[in-house]
Every structure is written in C-alpha cells, then in structure tokens.
C-alpha cells in the first residue's frame, strides 16, 4: 500500500498525529426508498486550533486526507517530520504510563470476550456530492452527517442505513482538488443486502449507474446477486436477502495467505470464522469473518486467489474502524499475533478518547476505538 501522510497543520504543539478531528454537523438528506433489506497509510498531524469540545467529533478517522505532495511524490517538509517525531514520542510516553502489565495468555483470552463491533469503513472519493447522490438515490442510504475542514483541505461524509451507534456505515473523504484514486487490486467490494436485486439494478441503470454483472444466482449456489460500480469505480455486490438490521453487510479484501489471516483475525481481532468456501473451479477460496451472523451483522470477506501472495492496495481504500473495551489490551494482542501497531494505544491529546491503529499481516489497516469513549461522543 502506498504510504500516505495527511497534510500537516501549522498550528503548534496542539497538532495530533491524526488525519482529522471533525465537529459534528447534523445534515440529513431525504432517503430514496426502495424494496431493500434494511479497503499502510502513515498518520499525520492536524491542528486542534478549531477544536470545540462541546460538539460531536469523529475521533478515529486516520489516514484519509491526502496532500497532493504525497500523491505526486513530493517530499514532506522538515517541519512535518519534526512534528511527527515529537508527537510520536509524547504518545509513547502516555502509553508507558497507561498500559497495564499483561501476559500473552490472559490478553488472548480477554480478546474472546471483548465487546467488539465494526463501526465504519473509510475510503476516498473524487466527487463527494456525486457519490452521496448515488448512494442515497440508488442504494437507499441516508446521509448521516457531513463536515468540511477547509484548513486541512478535505470534506468527509458518513452514510448508512441507521445511526452510527448501532449500524456499520461508510465514511467518504474528499481531498480538495483530487478527483481520482487508484483503488488497487487488493480491495474487492462492499456488500449490500436488498430484497429485490433486479429492481435495485433497474434503479441503478435508470440513474446512470454502471452494472458489471447482471442479476442471477451466484456460481455454485442459489443466492441471487449482481455487481455495480459507484462513480469512483468501487464495486458493490448486491445480495438478495430478506429484511435485515444491517444492509451494509460486507467488506471484501484479498489476502495472500488465507489460513494466516483467519488465525490473525480470530486471535488478534476476536472475530469468528463464520464460514469458509473453496472454489477450485475458479481457483479461489473465501472466508467470512465477523462478530455475529451474516444476516444480522457486517462481516469481513477475505479472498485468497490461488498462487497470489501480494496485492497492490492503491490509495483509495483506507481502513475499517472497530470498537473495543480496551485499546491497550487490543494493541498487545495484535502485537502477539504478528500485527503491526502504527499508532500506539492511548488517549488523544485534548479529547481523551482512546484509540490504537494497526496493520494486519497483509498490510490492511484497522483502527480500534474505546467503546465508552465512542458512545460518549455520540451523545
């Protein structure tokens, strides 16, 4: 994955080793109703000069705002590197003070009982308004909130099928002046459960959307599916299901060693292997991982293509955010299971919400957020 550093703030020691902190803006669009069942960035600095603690913030959106200098190969400034080193040192100090002593046995046992949920998935788009229109009119999502950060030159929007405290949602990021991203070969698709795939496909076509696979049963099975693309080329698999509390139901990523990934996500992330299916005729194997059954929860679909051990991840897809009861123990478990910590666990300066960020063995990024802090910020 291309290393991406968000634009540095010029604002002094208040800068965070994060890509963004976003005060809440309550903007809700009308949702187009249809017969539906209801993707290794480095972290960068952002100013707290405009921080308002009385307003709701997005605390765990890491690595989505990209300066053009990084996209076009221009070296970061010395001041950015100096700020980054300073913040990293401070963060390490907080970690040393806050993290309790743990053993391998008790932390891996704790992971099994941790209360975890997939919160949202983050990726970058070239035309935010166009993408919002497509998601609301064609896929029936709601615009939950939208926030512009002109000093950092990006805008983000959250969309989904219900409130963020109970639903998996998408976080879209638009970086000023950047209208196209490389999605790469590693990201696969998002999954949307709908009651009538053919009807949804007709709607997508009527709105000018692109259909890449017409409705029909999945190969080797009976589930009716179709594939479409959003305006940026991100693929969505439409799956025909009955009513479900979680229509945004899948994120598919490709991995180079499926057994290694399953073991990692089970032990480090506390996910359950819900099912595994080999397709020798088409030379791939999939594994569904998650925190509950597929018909009621968003899941991670890992795909292994025979003989392919590494993928280009591009710079479009960013990460998944996951809730946890303890970011310190989570980080310890990730380290014990071979994951790489990219942001040591601890509270964010000035806000005190605790997070940690990491990479899995294939370099896919995740951010873990303290559950109590997360719900406090949603109040």
From TrEMBL:
Catalysed conversion reaction: (R)-S-lactoylglutathione = methylglyoxal + glutathione
Record Pfam families: Glyoxalase
Cofactor note: Binds 1 zinc ion per subunit. In the homodimer, two zinc ions are bound between subunits.
Domain (VOC): residue spans on this chain: 117-241, 247-371
Transmembrane feature ranges: none
Any GO BP annotation: methylglyoxal catabolic process to D-lactate via S-lactoyl-glutathione
Purpose: Catalyzes the conversion of hemimercaptal, formed from methylglyoxal and glutathione, to S-lactoylglutathione.
NCBIfam families in the record: glyox_I
Protein name: lactoylglutathione lyase
